[in-house]
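Before the break, one more example. Copy the sequence into your notebook; we will annotate it together after we see the structure.
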Amino acid sequence: MLRLPRRTRPRRKRNRSNLPIVGHFCVNCGAPLELRSIEGRELEACANDGYVLWRDPKVAAAVVVEADGGIVLGRRAIEPAYGEWCLPGGFVNDDEDPAAAAVRECREEINVEVQLIALLGVYHVAKTTASSIVGIAYRGRVVAGETLSAGPEMLEVGVFRPDGLPPVAFPSHREVLALYAAATAGPASPPSRAPAPRRPRRTR
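Here is what the structure looks like once it is written out:
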């Protein structure tokens, strides 16, 4: 059997954030960017004009959609987490308002128009081999007259009681559900106080 020599690839340099440095070029002059220490981080920069390739996070939106007394989840038809349950959501386009992106993702994934009714919070997903994610979580409800169904990225869609959810794929979505649970929890009942003992009346 003929065995071909194994091709060896040059090892990619990595910066302190573990993101691979893949050899980018300056958008102004086209020169190769060089690795430099800038503000305590190793980043690619141009030696000619000082252009810096900042490694900024991506922005995503997720929605806890209420319907029929429960929460809408979709079972994914794509990787990552194929076949697992998740909230509707996805990345925000660069020309898009995050709230509009949240509504669009619901339309694409669970085939309904959703009205956003509250901002649940903002969360961060740290990554070591790709850009990190800043997520924006919303609470929403299905617009009257709309019927849930699975979009192209979902195998199926289900409505689950908040206390009976299936395992959810992503830690960030579990964090969003925790934000939702905190936001929808009823006010805590004040601790009951025993009546103060009456002082005996002094008689003269």
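The CA atoms of residues 117 and 133 lie 23 Å apart. The chain has a mean pLDDT of 85. Try to locate both features in your own notes.
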